[in-house]
Write a structure and sequence with these properties.
This protein is 35% helix and 20% strand. Helix 1 runs antiparallel to helix 4, helix 4 packs parallel to helix 5 and helix 17 crosses helix 18.
């Protein structure tokens, strides 16, 4: 890719994000919510724009629901960076006039940077309803963050979309469908939309239109549903898709990231984010050829794909089983007048609600009306209470331990002759009557199994489990379910036993004993060990678990007694994760593993750093890690009778081990003498040396007599942190980890210097500038943002991403500074 980023484009990024944020803050929250105006953060917008394959020659761009124009800006910037565009003709829509002044600012910004790049920029804006408008123009590109809003069967939107051959229940699907129709053949669309369209009958028409009219080339998912639109606290699970109209369907790239903090990586020449994984899969892995409903599976790694294939061996439908599943008919707010606290035989029926936990439904529940009056209005909603029903909670999220939570309801739970099931429950029944108790228990095991939980996470995009999703699943046959159910003791069965029953059924059907769940089990076991060893919450995650497994060279099928202690570096650790566990992390995750997992492992005495050469620099490419011998001995005993006593013994001696290793590392640290005569020691390495240079070279020259508020370090056991002094300046933080590498306070000018020490990553770019501005917004001192580099060579790598209104200092030329501010030299900006 021919990509050149100049200062003007980099500077304009910050300006575009400021316009977006100002627009979001200025809009009336109620109308913003009503119109679903949730503006895309710039890092995500840039990632979306980067997915376009072709940005050449004359570009006609459609941005419906444009808001401040941040998506359009991202496409313009990406086009200019690739240096292949000659004309960018932008068409924007917004139903509200409120964002127009901000859109105008963004477009002036786009026009300015296009002028500087000798590219013609044109813009036409329509304050109209995009769905209702009948524009006939065709476009080469469309970029969309559409409104998420249900549309009723009688709405004008539904009518217009049906006339276009599109039948959908939500505006976002309508926006995408209409935008595709407005693309020319070969035109490209990128959209960030809810994942809910991937499954279920309500979006079947939309899926079929999407798949018949275009080819999906890229799908991106977020590990957390909270991050994409965190500013608006949107909890809808979102995905990003890239499609090409009229293109032959080929392989699909599936990527995932922990969050939406994308940045341009100069090594890979692409936008990446923390914990990013990337893989390419055949189309058949995403949409099964024999699936008439065309559910979209999103296997983000090899484990997910193996789980999808394992679940596919079951081929029995609910119809084959003679079983139905329906949503409970009791809707509380509609029947409020008939709901009562007291159960009266022959006059009321029991009402069953979702239970938080347990294998059997409970009745009555606290703070819930236990009964409903039996009358002409309610009688048809009540079912026979003479046997067993299987219940599944409707509402769930990806953060829950299990997405599908099934439980047994037995008629012995209540003396009522009739029972009503709440609308927040799905009920398995046979013509509104009970099903065979062993069949119910067999279904209970199957739906609560880890296999089906993992499988559902690959297709389920809703925050609820609908009856239609349960109808779509394929099950073991009737005979097998009965046999499984006969083995179940509801009072005693554990998750381990549930999974074993399903594994036995799979082995019986396939003779395949190796389960992809072994991989997940091993990861969960590693997390459990880290928890037992006292690691903090921040390290109880998949990344840290895989790091531990790599350090122990434990493959999915290995027992813990096979653990060993190879010396291994960060990049080999990542290669091992990919090869053995199918986790293909993007290159930028290297620093995350080093700084947020291995560093803490070393501090906790779990592993040793450079045991072969302890004086090796922190940032050396030869840096390596090895499990500490005592900890290795401990994990080899997991599953043995001696585990508990070994764990107790390890925990009793760990503090002395940690102190011993810390003392050995301290001998290798760089001493730094503070102005008051105090001495602190920084770990060996370029990063620590640069921090020392900031204090001893930068401070005396540009902030003479300044106080040190904070010093971070890549290897020191204790950072220097004057929390009380920072509070006296109006700044209170919940985590010092959010601070820059160095914070200095110059009392003479009342300036607070926020300095990032950069040897390999982390300058004050637009994202970091905004983060620090927000973090220190209550500071009574003026803020000065500085990026420090050890030399000009390192500086040159990061110059394109430096934020405007910040400073750059280079240690090899300590008497000079570079001012990225335009209107003044060193000092705070308002």
């Amino acid at each position: 890719m021919n990509r050149v980023i100049n200062f003007n484009v980099s500077t304009s990024s910050h300006a575009a994000e400021e316009i977006r944020m100002s627009c979001a803050l200025s809009l009336d929250k109620e109308s913003q919510k009503q119109n679903s105006q949730y503006f895309t953060p710039l890092p995500i917008a840039k990632f979306l724009a980067s997915l376009f394959v072709k940005l050449k020659g004359n570009i006609s761009l459609l941005d419906p629901g444009s808001g401040s124009g941040i998506l359009s800006y991202a496409v313009v910037e990406e086009s200019l960076c690739r240096r292949d565009a000659q004309l960018i003709e932008l068409t924007t829509y917004d139903i509200s006039p409120a964002p127009k002044p901000f859109l105008d600012k963004t477009c002036r910004l786009c026009s300015s940077i296009c002028d500087e790049s000798n590219v013609i920029f044109k813009h036409k804006h329509y304050i109209r309803d995009f769905i209702i408008d009948n524009m006939k123009k065709r476009f080469s590109h469309a970029i969309i963050n559409p409104p998420y809003q249900k549309i009723s069967a009688s709405s004008p939107h539904r009518k217009v979309l049906k006339e276009l051959g599109i039948d959908t229940v939500n505006l976002y699907a309508g926006f995408v469908s209409k935008a595709i129709k407005m693309l020319e053949i070969g035109g490209e669309l990128v959209a960030i939309i809810p994942r809910s369209f991937c499954n279920g009958p309500y979006y079947e028409s939309f899926r079929k239109h999407l798949l018949t009219s275009s080819a999906i080339t890229h799908i991106h998912i977020f590990d957390s549903r909270k991050d994409a639109f965190y500013e608006n606290q949107i909890l809808q699970e979102n995905i990003i898709i890239h499609c090409i109209k009229g293109h032959d369907q080929g392989n699909i790239t599936i990527s995932s990231s922990r969050n939406g903090n994308f940045y341009f990586d100069t090594n890979s020449q692409s936008y990446i984010a923390e914990g990013m994984t990337i893989r390419t899969v055949p189309f058949e892995n995403v949409i099964k050829r024999d699936d008439k409903s065309q559910f979209i599976h999103i296997p983000k790694n090899d484990i997910d794909q193996a789980i999808i294939e394992r679940a596919a061996i079951f081929q029995t439908t609910l119809n084959d089983l003679g079983v139905e599943v329906s949503t409970g008919p009791i809707v509380g707010f509609r029947l409020k007048e008939f709901l009562v606290e007291k159960f009266i035989p022959n006059h009321t029926a029991a009402v069953i609600y979702p239970s938080g936990s347990g294998n059997e439904a409970l009745w009555p529940l606290e703070k819930k009306p236990s009964s409903i009056k039996i009358n002409e209005k309610t009688k048809k909603l009540l079912w026979e209470n003479s046997g067993t029903y299987l219940l599944v909670n409707r509402f769930s999220s990806k953060e829950q331990a299990r997405r599908i939570v099934a439980m047994i309801y037995s008629s012995s739970t209540t003396l009522a002759e009739r029972v009503g099931f709440d609308n927040k429950i799905n009920v398995f029944h046979k013509n509104k009557r009970p099903i065979h108790p062993d069949l119910a228990k067999g279904l209970f095991v199957f739906l609560n199994s880890s296999l089906i939980d993992k499988y559902y996470r690959c297709i389920g995009g809703h925050t609820q489990v609908n009856a239609s999703d349960l109808k779509y699943l394929k099950y073991p046959d009737y005979k097998s379910l009965i046999a499984i159910g006969q083995k179940v003791n509801l009072q005693k069965i554990t998750q381990l036993e549930i999974d074993k029953l399903i594994d036995e059924e799979v082995v019986k059907m396939t003779n395949e004993s190796t389960s992809p769940l072994n991989t997940e089990d091993k990861i969960q076991q590693a997390i459990w060990i880290l928890n037992e060893a006292g690691m903090p919450k921040e390290q109880l995650n998949e990344r840290s678990a895989l790091t531990l497994l790599a350090l122990a060279d434990l493959k999915p099928a290995d027992g813990w007694s096979s653990a060993c202690d190879p010396m291994i570096g960060v990049t080999p650790i990542m290669d091992w994760m990919k090869e053995q566990y199918g986790k293909n992390y993007a290159p930028n995750t290297r620093e995350t593993i080093r700084r947020q997992t291995l560093h803490q492992f070393v501090e906790a005495g779990i592993c040793l750093y450079n045991p072969d050469k302890p004086d090796r620099a922190v940032n050396s490419p030869k840096a390596c890690y090895q499990l500490e011998p005592e900890f290795l001995g401990l994990i080899k005993k997991l599953g043995l009778d001696s585990w508990k006593s070994s764990l107790d013994q390890y925990l009793n001696t760990r503090d002395s081990l940690v102190a011993q290793y810390a003392k050995e590392r301290e001998m290798l640290m760089i001493p730094l003498v503070l102005s008051e005569g105090n001495i602190i020691k920084l770990s060996a390495g370029d990063h620590s040396q640069l921090i020392s240079d900031i204090v001893t070279e930068f401070g005396p020259r540009f902030a003479p007599g300044s106080e040190i508020i904070y010093l971070g370090d890549t290897g020191a056991k204790q950072d220097f942190y004057d929390e009380d002094r920072l509070k006296s300046l109006g700044v209170t933080l919940d985590k010092k980890g959010k601070l820059p590498d160095v914070v200095l306070y110059w009392q003479e000018r009342n300036w607070l210097f926020l300095i990032e020490s950069v040897t390999s990553h982390g300058p004050v770019d637009n994202k970091r500038y905004i983060e620090l501005t927000k973090l220190f917004e209550k500071s009574t001192a003026g803020l000065v943002f500085v990026t420090a580099f050890p030399d000009k060579r390192t500086m040159n790598k990061f110059l394109p991403s430096i934020a405007w209104e910040t400073e750059v200092w280079v240690a090899e030329a300590p008497t000079h500074m570079v001012h990225f501010n335009g209107d003044r030299f060193l000092g705070p900006h308002k």
